[in-house]
Amino acid sequence: MDRDYSLNGDVIFLSDTHGNCQHDATVNAALSWVDRHKPRFRIMAGDFVDLAAMRTGASEAERAVALQDDLDHGWALMEAFRPTAMLLGNHCWRPWMWLGSTRMEQRELGQRLIDDWRERFAKIGTTVYPYHAEQGVARLTPNLVVLHGYHAGLHAAYKLAQHYADPDGYAIMGHVHSKAVGTFARHPAAATGITLPCACDRSKLPYIARAVGSLRWDVGFMTGRIVDGLFDASWTWHITESEEPRGGRPLWT
Ligand SMILES: [Fe+2]
Ligand SMILES: [Fe+2]
Question: Which residue, 27, 46, 53, 120, is the most exposed by fewest CB within 10 angstroms?
């Protein structure tokens, strides 16, 4: 990709709102930042809906979670945020997974959602990327790629830098719900991976009560600037809440 020197402007990265499990204070803070700064790039790094009931291998309890409220919240946010780029995440990708189902009603619902989303994203001018380790990578500038993310665990930012960032460049992903920076030595200059905080409310997600990883989640969003066609090093996290472990609590008091 050639450097476009005329490309300048603010950029906001919002990620992992998970539909009706969104963290309202964070989403409102992100929308008011958009209002004030009018960023040229508004990136949604995935998981704008939760779709618990559509997970492959969903439990009975997950299959009982209604879809409509989740979809309504996800779309209310998309229509307010109007992402310029959407990196579909593993949760958003469930309708596509259902296209391969042996059950007719699952294939039909999957297809209906995909058709609806295609139309709605087109209406708000969003370029949509698939959940795909190669095709799901949006290159915004010669030194910046964004993806939903295909790494997990403590070293996700480092592995992200290793796989996706160019020398002296940045790769930014959602998915892990926590903020981290990892650098990878690469000739002639280090590559940087940044993982985004999520914008969902841990207490609303039905399936993570015993997921230890969620104890290190951060809640917030990220902003930065593109200057003369390159992503600028002065990016910032805006953390609404760090999900610090709150410790043991007796069941009955
Ligand atoms: Fe997520
Ligand atoms: Fe994800």
Answer: 120
CA 152–ligand 2 middle distance (angstroms): 9
Residues with a beta carbon under 5 angstroms from ion ligand 1: 16, 47
- Mind listing the pLDDT tens digit for each residue in 47-68? 999 999 999 999 888 898 899 9
Q: What fold, for 9-242?
A: Purple Acid Phosphatase; chain A, domain 2 (3.60.21)
Among all bound ligands, the one having the nearest atom to the CA of 200 is: 1
Q: Which ligand is closest in space to the CA of residue 173?
A: 2
How far apart are alpha carbons 156 and 149 in whole angstroms? 9
Shortest-distance ligand to the CA of residue 89 = 2
H helical segments located in 21-152: 24-37, 60-63, 68-81, 94-98, 104-123
